[in-house]
Structures are given as C-alpha cells and as structure tokens.
Design goal:
This protein has helices spanning 18-36, 40-44, 83-95, and strands at residues 47-56, 77-81, 106-118, 132-144, 148-162, 168-177. By secondary structure, the chain is of the alpha+beta class.
C-alpha cells in the first residue's frame, strides 16, 4: 500500500545555482555595509512589507531537553518585529530619544557560511520554489562610548523573495544567538 504525496514543484528544496548563491552573498554584504554605516532607512528597503523578524531567547538545557532550549512563538523573544515596528525603532533613533544609541554604536557585521536553497512550499506556507531559503552564520562586533564592547555570534535563517523588478528582499528572518545571557547593557543592534 503506497501513500501518495503531493509532488514538490521543480527545484523546491534544491541547492541554488552558483550565480544565485553569489547574488545572495552580495545581498548580505550590502546589508551588512548599510547596517555598519548606520543607513537604517536604506536597510529597510531590503526588507519585504510583510516581514517577520524574530529573535527568540534560549536557555541552557540538558541534552535530552534540547528541543526546549529555544523559546517558541509567543514566548520570550529579543525581537519579534514587523517592518513597521522596525521602521518605528529607526525613527526613534533619529528623534534623539533613543538614549541607548546616543552617541551611536559602531558595529561590524560579518556574515559567513551562507547556504542557499530554493524554498519548499510544503514547508514554507505562502512561498514558492522561486523564493530562497538561506542559512548563514554571523558575528557582530559592537563598540559604544569608550569601553563598551559586545560581540554577538549566531545564525540566521531567512526566506528571501524577489520584488517585481528582480531585487531580493528579506521576507522572514529568524535569528538565533549562540549565547543565552546577553552581556550587553541593551540590544539595539539589528542582525
């Protein structure tokens, strides 16, 4: 007795070709440069209007409880944002009311270990095989004032989609820090 499953669209879940992989890496390098230059309004243009930007918290758990180490949706998160809420944060920076960022931090975003696949619609509702499922690792160095230094390391999982004019945009981003207790006094850095 066989069970029939819906066929996957061509390319779904498959590794992207070399040109697409290169394009995604260049997209991430541009994004990092915008963030490091403090060009947040330009960075927003790289984000889709229906953006879901999520950074859950994590806890230390025994090996047998690792499935519980990352907070689930609706539980504690460092970021649980939309494009509109990120735009609000950026407007707040520019208003002079974001004291944690006045004077502004200096950051350096390093992105590596980029792996690009075509999205599988069976796993990602609302996406097609033309969209891209991308994982990457990052290291973000932040310096503020004279002696305040922070290093954030972790991984990102993104769903990228093309705009009608062919540009890439981040539609979904899940950020998972490697540390579970932040040593930073605040978290006003975008990842």
């Amino acid at each position: 007795m066989s069970t029939a499953t819906a066929p996957h669209p061509p390319g779904a879940g498959q590794r992207a070709d070399r040109d697409t992989h290169f394009e995604v890496e260049q997209f991430y390098y541009e994004e990092a440069a915008l963030l490091d230059a403090g060009r947040f309004a330009d960075w927003l243009e790289l984000l889709a209007d229906d953006l879901d930007y999520w950074m859950p918290t994590r806890t230390n758990r025994l090996r047998r409880q690792q499935a519980l180490s990352v907070a689930a949706r609706g539980e504690a998160a460092f970021y649980d944002e939309t494009k509109d809420s990120l735009a609000w944060r950026i407007r707040r920076f520019d208003s002079g009311m974001a004291w944690a960022e006045d004077p502004p931090s200096r950051t350096r975003h390093l992105v590596t270990n980029v792996m690009v696949r075509h999205a599988d619609p069976a796993e990602h509702d609302g996406f097609t095989a033309a969209d891209l499922y991308v994982t990457s690792a990052f290291l973000v160095y932040r310096n503020r004032l004279e002696r305040e230094e922070n290093v954030f390391a972790g991984g990102r999982t993104d769903l990228l989609r093309r705009t009608p004019d062919g540009r890439l945009q981040v539609a979904r981003r899940t950020i998972l820090l490697d540390q579970n207790i932040l040593q930073a006094k605040n978290i006003s850095t975008f990842f």
